[in-house]
Amino acid sequence: xxxxxxxxxxxxxxxxxxxxxxxxxxxxxxxxxxxxxxxxxxxxxxxxxxxxxxxxxxxxxxxxxxxxxxxxxxxxxxxxxxxxxxxxxxxxxxxxxxxxxxxxxxxxxxxxxxxxxxxxxxxxxxxxxxxxxxxxxxxxxxxxxxxxxxxxxxxxxxxxxxxxxxxxxxxxxxxxxxxxxxxxxxxxxxxxxxxxxxxxxxxxxxxxxxxxxxxxxxxxxxxxxxxxxxxxxxxxxxxxxxxxxxxxxxxxxx
Amino acid sequence: xxxxxxxxxxxxxxxxxxxxxxxxxxxxxxxxxxxxxxxxxxxxxxxxxxxxxxxxxxxxxxxxxxxxxxxxxxxxxxxxxxxxxxxxxxxxxxxxxxxxxxxxxxxxxxxxxxxxxxxxxxxxxxxxxxxxxxxxxxxxxxxxxxxxxxxxxxxxxxxxxxxxxxxxxxxxxxxxxxxxxxxxxxxxxxxxxxxxxxxxxxxxxxxxxxxxxxxxxxxxxxxxxxxxxxxxxxxxxxxxxxxxxxxxxxxxxx
Lengths: 254, 254
What we know:
The structure is a homodimer.
Chain A: E1 11-18, E2 23-30, E3 35-39, H1 46-55, E4 59-64, H2 76-82, E5 87-91, E6 100-102, E7 107-110, E8 113-119, E9 128-132, E10 137-141, E11 144-145, E12 148-149, H3 159-170, E13 178-181, E14 191-192, H4 193-199, H5 207-214, H6 225-232, H7 242-252
Parallel strand pairs in A: 3-4, 4-5, 5-6, 10-13
Antiparallel strand pairs in A: 1-2, 2-3, 7-8, 8-9, 9-10, 11-12, 13-14
Helix pairs in contact in A: 1-2, 3-5
Organism (chains A, B): Daphnia magna
Domain Metallo-beta-lactamase (chains A, B): 22-183
Pfam families (chains A, B): Lactamase_B (PF00753)
């Protein structure tokens, strides 16, 4: 049986969940400097997240998007208001507005810890996977899900590109790296490179078979996409749907 | 900031979630001997759990209940059928049928790892908390929830007893022990002894104030209790509600 890499003593890690969109958010921190980052926060839970960060005595440096989500509005806009001094982050290729843009090969630092940016397009052009090599963990967004993967039938979806992203930039990580996706709908919280290389029902196929599977999923049009994309193009800072404008008016005031 | 104790290199840990009842289940294993235990499985997800255990190459020794749940049917009955050789476990004080009964001070072993049983009644008489001292983790069932606690207004609920259980047997653990409850409804996955000692809105009060709070919650009658208790009295092995009998007939045949 494969052994996980142990987290460093000064590395704090906390996974969080949104029951509505089944999104996972990840709070990472340096326990010595208290500098923290939050991956894929959800707007409806930004207050929960800010409270936890406060309770733990952490200082949020970056709130980070793995990509421009289509199923929920990111919490990165509200969080930079709730926790002044923090910055929103997204990839340059996403073409979304943010305080900081990242591209393949960039390194994000928080305290003494580092996170590498890997461009893993296919679900969207701007999808990235974030890798903390020393901790043996990676955040795969919607590129690779547990025993699944992100859709390739909207935004800039492309199954061939997604297949290559997973095989070249995620499956090439060590087998015992733990992978944390942006979503899971079955109550499973994490997986490993080895598990997905052995058991992923789609990505263990040949590229041709994979493309065939992805092109024949016949999924419904994403319910939240028309509300989520305009807001996520600005990292949830404005362009909220009308029913949310009022709620966040005081927080997001210019 | 408090530092978590690091998990031993040969200790495997995986948290799982049931979106319907918001129940957390916990898979623990010795990575060398492959012996595993599963805390608080849910019947509807027993097949998911058995598949994960199989994928990981683990051998389930015990499927364990923290108490006789009132909100869902335990998966321990189905799991002992799906994974022959495994045994169901619950406390003697719960008065439920199981392969193995535990009481305060007992030690459950899996591979080279140990888990201590602490009697923590108050939500029910049979509630226990399981503690893995070497790993700095404890499974608190419904006794202590994240910034909350289990109800004390049905079954054998008693707020004074619950208050003493938490203060004497959970808050007495080291501050940096991570606590994993049976449920959370806000997408938070774990907490620590220190966090709950500082921020639990109920259990930071005096015992008198706590009793007053608990006696005035005016909660609705639990929706699933009349279906869950008869089945959970036999660890989910039979006495299933009629609509589930058919589904599990072939698995649970005598």
